[in-house]
Amino acid sequence: MWNLSFISEEDFTDHVKATIQKYGEKLKSFDLKRFNKNIVDPVKLIFDKTVYRSSWEEIVSNEIFRQRDKSNNNDIGYFHQRIFQFISGCHVPDNGKEGGWDVVYKNPDGIILPGGSVVHTVYVEMKNKHNTMNSASAGKTFIKMQNQILNDDDCACFLVEAIAQKSQNIKWETTVDGKKVGHKLIRRVSLDQFYSIVTGQEDAFFQMCLLLPSVIRKVVDNLSDAIVPHDTVIEELKQLAEKQKIEDKELALAMAVYMLGFGSYSGFKNKQEESI
Predict the structure, then answer these.
(1) What is the pTM assigned to this prediction?
(2) In sequence order, which residues have a C-beta less than 8 Å from that of residue 164 and are 6 or more positions away?
(3) What is the 3-state secondary structure of 131-195?
């Protein structure tokens, strides 16, 4: 039974699938060469493994996850932004087009803001986390919103945060050129509150989140052959460890890890040549 009134099951499933496919390169399997493409820090791996009492399998898996995760926020940003193309009244401009807004919401019946102001269009700048903008970026964004309001007196501008500090729809106050600025039509809005505004359903974001895990599972199951990676890093490290001619297996594996970053260093280079 489909419980979301503001988006169809087909559209939601297709959007989840498109988001997963955006992972692209990150879904490819890791071999040792890819694992060490930017040269891992062997000393950190040794510390992490020992301090956290992890196995080599766990610590290598964690490092692979970390490397994959570095750019996944962009893909989740795609999910948060592009879902609004399926919601009535919302328009998602192409990147860099139409003023560079992430979402534009229009309601001919009017959009009532806290304080009683009524507008018919909301222009949205969307951020994944509340702390991702530095002061310069925040100032630039505020000026962009201020200019939009000067050119259109029937609109509001929202800074919508997927991970806000709390549920909110408040006047956004920031600093521009050392001066604190704010405007009642320039607002800082948490994602749940924005969902509520555009759908007319107070718990719309909550309801979407409830269905999301099952839809992701269904999509992944259908794509499993194409997206499930087979990482070979730990197997390759064990093969290198066997060549180290060190009886202590833990030290032999640690030496294989050291070689990833220190293979040309004094002492390590000789050890490397011995194992060839």
Answers:
(1) 0.84
(2) 130, 188, 189, 190, 191
(3) CCCCHHHHHHHHHHHHHHHHHCCCEEEEEEEEECCCCCEEEEEEEECCEEEEEEEEEEEEHHHHH
Question: What b/e sequence results for 204-221 when a residue is b if at least 16 CB atoms lie within 10 Å of its CB, and e otherwise?
Answer: bbebbeebeeebeeebee
Q: Which two tokens stand for residue 250?
A: 């833990």
Long-range CB contact pairs, 71-74, < 8 A, 24+: 71/26, 72/23, 72/26, 73/128, 74/22
79-118, pLDDT tens digit by residue?
999 999 999 999 999 988 999 999 999 999 999 999 999 9
Closest to 14 measured CA to CA, from 229, 228, 223: 223
Q: Which domains, and CATH codes, for the chain?
A: 27-70+232-275 (no CATH), 76-222 (3.40.1560)
